[in-house]
Amino acid sequence: NAGVTQTPKFRVLKTGQSMTLLCAQDMNHEYMYWYRQDPGMGLRLIHYSVGEGTTAKGEVPDGYNVSRLKKQNFLLGLESAAPSQTSVYFCASSSEHNAGRSGELFFGEGSRLTVL
Amino acid sequence: GENVEQHPSTLSVQEGDSAVIKCTYSDSASNYFPWYKQELGKGPQLIIDIRSNVGEKKDQRIAVTLNKTAKHFSLHITETQPEDSAVYFCAASSIQGAQKLVFGQGTRLTINP
Asked: Is there a contact between B97 and A92 if contact means CB atoms under 8 Å apart?
């Protein structure tokens, strides 16, 4: 049982290049999320998905696109990378959050992206 | 939208002493307040949470208190141990399908032996 797996763990890009981060979860969770973590700013939600084939914007969606073609996978894409997108990216998944369940977020170990 | 402020940004305590981290939130519609612990090189992990219909919750050495009127909540760790050294994040959201958490800035807690 791997939980949430992110690939790659490290990547260096040049400004203007594109790349995709892959997140996979094996807990059959409906909900998946992409966060970015920057020093002194906590974690900020980029995009999220409430189920296969759906995506929605979070706090800081500009410059990113996402896709959820399969329930277990959530892809984060950068079409034209900028230095401001240098960050550590975390994927997370959860079950439904309601009065009876906490909807705890299960995070991957992060992907460190540097844009030069 | 919601805004969560967390203090202090760094905290150093002697092993065995208590540690307190405080957070404030702005949106009165928020009713769920989790705390996550992040160890070096790892993703955050839930350690305790509280809902707005409860004022306090304990789990062994950790406890969380909530003051809805003042819109603030706190994490208390007693009898601190070296393995408590980590970055702690508070967060807030409303209880509904997807967990759109708004996180605080984080507190780096160091336990000195």
From this structure: no
Does the CB of B86 have a partner CB in chain A at under 8 Å? no
Give the pLDDT band (50/70/90) at residue A98: low
Q: How far apart are CA A43 and CA A33, in angstroms?
A: 11
A99 neighbourhood in chain B, CB within 8 Å: 95
Contact B99 A33 (CB under 8 A): yes
- Judge whether B62 and B47 are in contact, CB under 8 Å: yes
State pLDDT tens for residues A54-66: 999 999 999 999 9
For residues A72, A48, A4, A70, the Cα torsion angle rounded to the nearest 10 degrees is 10
Residues B58-67: what's their mean pLDDT? 96
Residue B98 has a pLDDT of 78
Q: In the predicted model, what is the mean pLDDT of chain A? A: 94
Interface mutation target, options B53, B59, B99, B102, chain A, most CBs of A under 10 Å: B99
